[in-house]
Design brief:
Blueprint (H helix, E strand, L loop, with lengths): L11 H10 L3 E3 L6 H5 L12 E4 L3 H13 L4 E4 L15 E4 L6 E4 L4 E4 L5 H9 L3 E2 L10 H7 L6 H4 L6 E7 L5 E5 L4 H7 L8 E8 L1 E2 L3 E9 L4 H13 L5 E9 L5 E9 L3 H8 L11 E8 H6 L10 E9 L4 H10 L8 E8 L18 E9 L5 H15 L19 H5 L3 H11 L16
Parallel strand pairs: 2-4, 3-4
Antiparallel strand pairs: 1-2, 5-6, 6-10, 7-11, 8-9, 8-10, 12-14, 12-15, 13-14, 13-17, 16-18, 17-18
Helix pairs in contact: 11-12
Length: about 450
């Protein structure tokens, strides 16, 4: 990636011309608001774009992209800015900021929502829950829907209704050559396939059309937490719960820290069906391994379920994550998780989060690979003191290496490093097809600030 000093200097007249042409804003270094506008969720990322184009509509996106290509500048695209790898910003290039484009339109009769790329999960849920509808999104409601969906989209409804990308009906996209195209099962179906998990490799999405499902307003969910000496028992109980779980039940097991910093072993869940049936399935978990330290499993609104984790991931904290898929939660895997969890004591907040896959995920199509995996594991290091960075990153990497004999691949939205080393494993047997499509839609790799799929030769 070019640094500020290596990037071709842009003439001020050209920037003025872009500013005059756009409905949105163009910001450059040293202007009021620039420093705030360049910041992203992960505090480890501190990058200074040559200019920030805050787009108000599709034409603004096309103009900003055209400007970057004409001046041979790197392109970063930001929806919600939650990329853990920091792809939502760049040094010395053009940051195309979609945060002003936040409209959600819901057709309750046809159960379809159309959303712009600056929309967050909270925006989307507020609009759809007015009609008792929802679709799979993430578990932190401040996350933008764009990057989350393009990478797959793991969330509380995934076992019943599939990943976020599985619920796409169509996508409008600005390609590397500036064209606005629509991708769906009927139009540009190969591109549509690639967008369902292939990340930001193929263009800038300006509109997502989602299928909606009846959900809420009340679900049975929340979490229950136990003392750290019960970690193994909690993981064993979680394994039994997931082996018998109906598709309506999505659950996670977490080796993490409570708000007061004390280590805990927890199970979190959401039952996407009759809350009474959710209670019947989940209430035995409360006493499966002894008296819980915290019992927050119960009926709550779907919007409450979607935002429960928000305060644990505030903007500006530092993050380094790794991930892998598991075919089973074997005794050997549980041994590793218990041993690695022995370092968990906040601050910093080190977390091991096992996410139950399966159900409708396995039936989906698209670039998202490893659909047959039983679990996804998030290895999350989160800290606030810069002095903790080396220790936290080392812990995450060592944990991933220890689990390597028992795991495969990784989830693209959780992978932190920008060197491309994880990409073949992320996409597995989809990788060759993705490279061929990249060569078709972005042969010069304009959209490379992502977990990059390089064009096939």
């Amino acid at each position: 990636m070019k640094s500020m000093s290596e990037t071709k200097r842009v003439d001020g007249k050209d920037i003025w011309g872009l500013r005059e042409a756009m409905r949105g804003q163009v910001m450059v270094p040293d202007e009021t608001g620039y420093d705030q506008a360049r910041r992203v969720w992960n505090g480890t990322v501190d990058r200074r774009p040559a200019l920030i184009a805050r787009c108000a509509d599709v034409t603004d996106v096309q103009r900003a992209l055209g400007f970057a290509v004409e001046h041979d500048l790197p392109v970063a695209v930001r929806g919600g800015g939650h990329s853990v790898a920091g792809f939502s910003a760049c040094d010395g290039g053009v940051l195309i900021d979609l945060g002003l484009m936040r409209t959600v339109n819901v057709d309750a009769d046809s159960r379809v929502a159309r959303a712009e790329p600056g929309v967050t999960g909270a925006d989307f849920d507020r609009a759809t829950q007015q009609h008792g509808l929802a679709t799979t999104l993430g578990i932190v409601s401040t996350t933008g829907i764009a990057g989350l969906t393009l990478g797959g989209g793991i969330g509380w409804l995934m076992r019943k209704h599939g990943l976020a990308c599985d619920n796409l009906l169509s996508v409008d996209l600005v390609t590397a050559d500036g064209r606005l195209v629509t991708a769906s099962t009927d139009q540009n179906p190969d591109l549509f396939w690639a967008l369902k998990g292939g990340g930001g490799n193929f263009g800038i999405v300006t509109s997502f059309e989602y299928r909606l499902h009846p959900v809420g307003p009340e679900v049975y969910g929340g979490s229950v937490a136990f003392a750290p000496e019960h970690r193994r028992a909690v993981l064993n109980a979680y394994r039994e719960l997931t082996r018998k779980a109906p598709d309506e039940l999505t659950s996670y097991a977490a080796m993490t820290a409570a708000p007061d910093g004390s280590p805990v072993a927890a199970i979190a869940a959401c039952y996407a069906g009759d809350p009474a049936e959710g209670a019947r399935l989940l209430d035995p978990t409360k006493h499966a391994v002894g008296e819980p330290l915290l019992d927050a499993l119960g009926p709550l609104t779907y919007i409450e379920q979607q935002s429960r984790m928000d305060q644990g991931y505030p903007p500006g904290e530092y993050h380094y994550w790794r991930s892998c898929f598991l075919d089973d939660l074997t005794d050997q895997v549980i041994d590793v998780l218990v041993e690695r969890a022995s370092d968990i004591q906040a601050p910093p907040v080190l977390e091991l989060i096992v996410e139950h896959m399966g159900g409708a995920i396995a039936a989906g199509d698209g670039a998202f690979a490893h659909r047959d995996a039983s679990y996804d594991l998030l290895i999350a290091a989160n800290w606030t003191d810069p002095a903790d960075q080396d220790r936290c990153v080392a812990w995450a990497r060592e944990t991933a290496a220890t689990l390597e004999p028992h795991s495969r691949g990784g989830y693209v939205n959780y992978e932190p490093d920008a060197d491309g080393s994880y990409v073949p494993g992320v996409y597995g047997d989809r990788f060759a097809r993705l490279r061929a499509l990249k060569a078709q839609y972005d042969p010069h790799n304009v959209f490379r600030l992502n977990q990059n799929v390089t064009p096939a030769p």
